[in-house]
Amino acid sequence: MSNAREAKRIVVKVGTSTLTHASGHINIRLMEKLVKVLADIKNTDRELVLVSSGAIGVGMGKLGLRERPATIPGKQAAAAVGQCELMYLYDKYFSEYNHTVGQVLLTRYSLDDPESRRNVRNTFEALFGMGAIPVVNENDTVATDEIRVGDNDTLSAIVTQIIQADALIILSDIDGLYTADPAKDAAARLVPEVREITDALMDTASGAGSSRGTGGMLTKLTAGRIALAAGADMYIVNGRNPDVLYDLTEGKPAGTHFIAREGC
After folding, report:
1. Which residues contact 99 (CB under 8 A, 6 or more apart)?
2. CB count, 10 Å around CB of 242?
3. In angstroms, how far is CA 184 from the centroid of its own chain?
4. Any idea what DSSP says for residue 113?
5. Is residue 207 within 8 Å of residue 181, measured between CB atoms?
6. For the chain, which terminus, N or C, has the lower number of CB atoms within 10 Å?
């Protein structure tokens, strides 16, 4: 797969920091734009999966919580409230463009157990066959540390692997992978292509970039290793402008392109 233009089955992951304001409430304008672009790309006869973070963050905003809950029950309660709001909005906005969404909530057990993994794949295939767009999140309402995937970057890569997607696109709050942290180093430069995710590259990655999210560049590179090993290209692009998805699906360069080796 040389670029996303040729991809027929695409996983798109959007993070909490992209999807919400600093208050934790949904960025409605961005969400509407993202759904419009995804619906239009779906109309080009592609199969799409949307891996959406934001349940805990949105739940925090709706419950008026200023800080992310520290306890597992607190996080689960926030996720229970936030997941309802997220799916209500996705259903509402996609329906405006005549597309149907299906909610898929996963845990590590459902991804690690061979029989459950087959069932997960069969569910995705059935949704594709019905023309629906699966909206995926970790089942934070019931997940504990023992059965958590931990972050949706990794989850999106595992989904990419399970459904044998052609490409994984991670919508981030930065333009892609840089030679250094652009917030701290003015000389940092965007890396347009990566052909191998080495240990040295992993060592340069930092942790979570937002108090509302769980991911950072390290989790994205970890996701990249999974996706590339499965034969899927991965892209990290700035999700603040969803039109970047048009650029990718039209074969134009954007963000950082992680290129899978042929024959993977």
Report:
1. 39, 42, 131, 132, 133
2. 23
3. 25
4. S
5. no
6. C
Enter the pTM of the model: 0.90
User: Kindly report the CA angle at 171 between 167 and 172, in degrees rounded to 5?
Assistant: 135
71 exposed, middle or buried (CB, 10 Å; 0-12, 13-18, 19+)?
Answer: exposed
CA–CA dist 65, 138 (Å, integer): 21
Average pLDDT over residues 72-100: 93
Q: What integer is the mean pLDDT of 148-158?
A: 86
Paired tokens of 65: 């919580």
The answer to whether residue 205 scores a pLDDT higher than 60 is yes
Place of tokens 């490409």: 167
d(CA 100, CA 83): 17
Q: Locate tokens 């039109």: which residue?
A: 243
Q: What share of the chain is helix, strand, coil (3-state, %, to 5)?
A: 45, 20, 40
